[in-house]
């Protein structure tokens, strides 16, 4: 094996090792080099990892399947923020009793308490505790001089 081929194989291995933690699902990659002087080829089979997400099995939803995002609405006056909470789990398990960390959440604009309600400091209830169906989007707008950091706190999963 020439120095170039060894260097190429070593670089491919280093790149592979660095990427292992970023992807899931094993498969194989065939790396092949051809030496132009004597038409010899060298093949190296290395494991590879697919970046596709696997479908979850019934009952295996987790807090990672509750997506929370918010953005500022471009209006004048008191700033408004649009919040979207989505259940991304496809297993048929519908998380319920979803609570978020929300600090002293307050809004100058009334938020429907059946959609989002602060129960106490740093504890807000989503969808009145009812289950979030797969792909369901809970969306509301609130007004305040700053954006409240909202993050998952807990929920009841199947």
From TrEMBL:
It comes from the Eukaryota. Residues 1-24 form the signal peptide. Pfam families: TPD1_C. The keyword Cell inner membrane does not apply. Keywords: Signal. InterPro entries: TPD1 (IPR040361). This is Protein TAPETUM DETERMINANT 1-like. It comes from Nelumbo nucifera.
């Amino acid at each position: 094996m020439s120095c170039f081929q060894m260097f190429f194989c070593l670089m491919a291995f280093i790149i592979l090792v660095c990427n292992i933690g970023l992807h899931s699902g094993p498969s194989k990659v065939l790396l092949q080099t051809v030496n132009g002087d004597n038409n010899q080829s060298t093949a190296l089979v290395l494991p590879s990892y697919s970046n596709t997400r696997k479908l979850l099995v019934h009952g295996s939803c987790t807090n990672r399947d509750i997506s929370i995002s918010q953005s500022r609405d471009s209006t004048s006056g008191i700033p408004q923020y649009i919040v979207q909470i989505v259940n991304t789990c496809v297993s048929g398990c519908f998380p319920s009793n979803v609570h978020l960390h929300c600090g002293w959440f307050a809004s100058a604009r009334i938020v429907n308490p059946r959609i989002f309600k602060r129960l106490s400091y740093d504890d807000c209830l989503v969808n009145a505790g009812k289950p979030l169906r797969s792909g369901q989007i809970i969306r509301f707008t609130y007004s305040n001089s700053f954006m409240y950091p909202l993050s998952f706190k807990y929920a009841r999963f199947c």
